[in-house]
Amino acid sequence: MRDREKIYLDYAATTPVDGRVLHSMLPFFDQAFGNPASIHQFGQEAEAAIEQARETMARIMGCQPLEVVFTSCGSESDNLALRGVALAASRQRSANHILITPVEHHAVSRTALQLADLHGFEVEFIPVDDYGQVKPEDVASRLRPDTAIVSVIYANNEIGTINPIREIGQVCRARGIPIHSDAVQAAAFLPVKVDDLHVDLLSIGAHKFYGPKGVGALFIRQETPILPVQTGGGQEHGLRAGTSNTPYIAGLAEAFQLAVDERVKRIATLQPLRDHLINRILSKIPDSRLTGHPTERLPNHASFVFEGADGNQLLAMLDVAGFACSSGSACKTGDPEPSDVLLALGLPREWALGSLRVTLGAGTTEEHIEKFNQVLPGLVERVRKLTVS
Amino acid sequence: MRKEVVQTDQTGSKPGLGKRVVVAMSGGVDSSVAAALLVHQGYDVIGMMMRLWSEPGNESTNRCCTPEAMAMARRISAELGIPFYAVDAQEVFHREVVDFFQDGYAKGVTPNPCLACNRWVRWDFLLQHALAFDADFMATGHYARLNQGNNGQIQILKAVDEKKDQSYVLHVLGQEQLAHALFPLGKYTKNEVRQLARELGLPVADREESQDLCFLGEEDYRSFLIRNVPHVLDSGPILLPSGENVGTHQGLAFYTIGQRKGLGIQSSVPMYVLKKDLTRNALIVGPQEELGSSELIARKVNWVAGEAPHSPLRCQVKIRYKAVEVPAMVYPEDGIACVVFDDPVRDITPGQAAVFYEGEVCLGGGSILADSSNH
User: Fold this and answer.
1) Are A334 and B89 inside 8 Å of each other by CB?
2) Residue B266 — pLDDT band, cuts 50, 70, 90?
3) Fewer CB within 10 Å: N-end or C-end of chain A?
4) What are the tens digits of pLDDT across the range A259-308?
């Protein structure tokens, strides 16, 4: 079994580092290794690399370099956005209302809930439809003068649904309320020009598009009131203390640039494979449903629920059969709970516990998808029998 | 580093090539070494660990499946290069083991939940999972051996290490389960297993043994029962066999047959718990000479061979996991067995299992019936 080919279909969890990205990072480990904050030329060399990366990020997002803050990951970007903006809004204008959706990544939702718990913020959830999509009018009707921040995920990690961020952003900006979007999944495939999206803050994580784990970025529109979350040295315009991680920041910029340059090609390869997979699975497996929006979804993303199947056992069986996938109730300790996102779609527990996410990427071939389509129906049937007995 | 162990141990043969086995792991030394041995025997090994129990607030102390134990099993699997999966068995464990434990005490017997766990959780629920993963076998870290008898039947033999022998808790298995069973530790002593763990560099070698009921964690079984079966606290009379009332007990569940201390009764001779009379909620006590019985009835008898012997059987009987075997005649009847001991036996405890042995072979056994000893 250990020698059998393993097929990776979990690109929404993480991606392998692109060889070109790795190459771009290497000089900064042992050659240009200086501390970017240092006065000397070692430091200057590293600082130049970081500022070059910042310019690349800014060019891609259509913003000013000083509007880009490097962080350690997408979750940290979300934390800085929510905490930093909410606390500033509370202090400056006594705003204590946070508006999020039930389909946010935990990096957003748990941060919002902790702000409620520790600082007395009121967290309100914007409703979503059966596809997990937010309607701009549902945001508009909930905005209040004391709304500190609105956060709506650009594309959801579990169900792939893309939200109409542009319209939501317009609604918020017209009222002068800071709008953040978690674009950690979206950035690999969707437009990220921040002026087109009308967002004030946008979170990015490198490892979702063939960059390294452990580095992310946050776009913060100039003049958005924000307080630092991590204090210390004055790095990142005083918003994110800590010695800058030069190789990873260089890798993030390189990976992001490649994602933009190759976006059309990547989508053209993956989307037909993904569509084929969805059609085959839904037609071959009884009592199966696609979760998330049928068309307005990430182009590499397929997600399902199978009634009466234990999603964790299905993942384990798929793994043994050579396929690495994920699920909304993924749990490594054998105590599965249906995911908040799937429950927010109105799925009953017996369906929500049987979820499966299949996400395609650079290494995916037509042959992989054919093999997967052949294996999955039999495994779902087996898991259903186990779940019943 | 692992090669030497294999060669001293397995003479380099690879009996497992081409065969898949699921190992039931616990994070402890025994199941970890079992997994390692199977890897070295060439099996395609998958580690699985059941999430058995989570009582709100008590998660961290439950010895069976603490996060630390699961993290350990996961780490050992990674060391061995085998995949590892957690299986949610909470529902079946609660139904077949915890409820069984509580019901037993509620009915005044002293159940052995490990037997129910082996029969219905490990060797049914988990075995079904293993087979669904296309496994040929399931292995556990039990100390017992298997032997193919001359008639093709699989026998359970005692472990080489008599002190660690666990055939008692495996007597509930039949041919259907044994056809898929592997017990890699049966031919080793506990010391050898610890030594193997050290040689293999497994990080478990010096962990302490688990003894108590896994789902109780650090809690005393009495307080667990009081929380879950409040009526076990119903007090009642302590009676002599003659019917004379000599005191008050604090709930039958808290006394064991043969107990002398803690009865709180005044008497010129030491008094022992003889039996529990559920219909009167009475604890029957008497002097030492009335303790013990020369027979018992076992119900729900399982014969490992698949069918009961056709004639009465001369064999050895163990009435508890740690009891000394005693000679007896066993008279099999429909689903039950009458056991007549050569000499009276003390401490016959309804709810525990009477397990039958012929030499090294574990023949089967059954649950000791309340009132089966004739006082």
Assistant:
1) yes
2) confident
3) C
4) 999 999 999 999 999 999 999 999 999 999 999 999 999 999 999 999 99
Is residue B338 annotated as a catalytic residue, yes or no? no
Angle between helices B29-40 and B3-10 (to 10 degrees): 80
CA dist A85 to A18, A386, B132, Å? Answer: 34, 48, 51
Task: Give the CA distances from residue B74 to residues A170, A332, B1, B51, B132, in Å, rounded to whole numbers and listed in that order.
Answer: 48, 10, 21, 13, 21
% chain B with pLDDT above 90:
65
Question: A227, A87 in Cβ contact below 8 A?
Answer: yes
Mutation test of the interface with chain B: which of A323, A327, A335, choosing the one with the most B Cβ atoms within 10 A?
A335
How far apart are alpha carbons A373 and A388 in whole angstroms?
24
In angstroms, the first-to-last Cα distance of chain B is 61
Inter-chain CB proximity A333 and B67 less than 8 Å: yes
Interface check for A174 against chain B (CB to CB < 8 A): the answer is no
CB-based contact, B271 to chain A, within 8 Å:
no
A388 at B interface, C-beta within 8 A: no
Could you tell me the two tokens for B28? 């402890």
**Residue B144: what pLDDT?**
98
Determine which of B51, B74, B82, B95 to mutate to test the interface with A (most A C-beta atoms within 10 Å). Answer: B51
**What percent of chain A has pLDDT above 90?**
94
Give me A211's structure tokens.
Answer: 């960059």
Distance CA A180, CA A147 (A): 13
Amino acid A115 reads L
User: Smallest CA–CA separation between A287 and chain B, in Å?
Assistant: 21
Q: What is the mean pLDDT of residues A61-88?
A: 98
B81 part of contact set with chain A, CB < 8 Å = yes
ipTM entry: 0.87
| Residue in the structure block whose two tokens are 């701009």 | A136
Structure confidence at residue B265 as a pLDDT band (50, 70, 90):
confident
- Give the pair of three-digit tokens for residue B296: 């018992």
Rounded Cα distance, A9 and A300, in Å: 10
Q: What angle do CA B277, B282, B285 make, to 5 degrees?
A: 90
**CA dihedral sign, ordered A321, A326, A327, A330:** positive
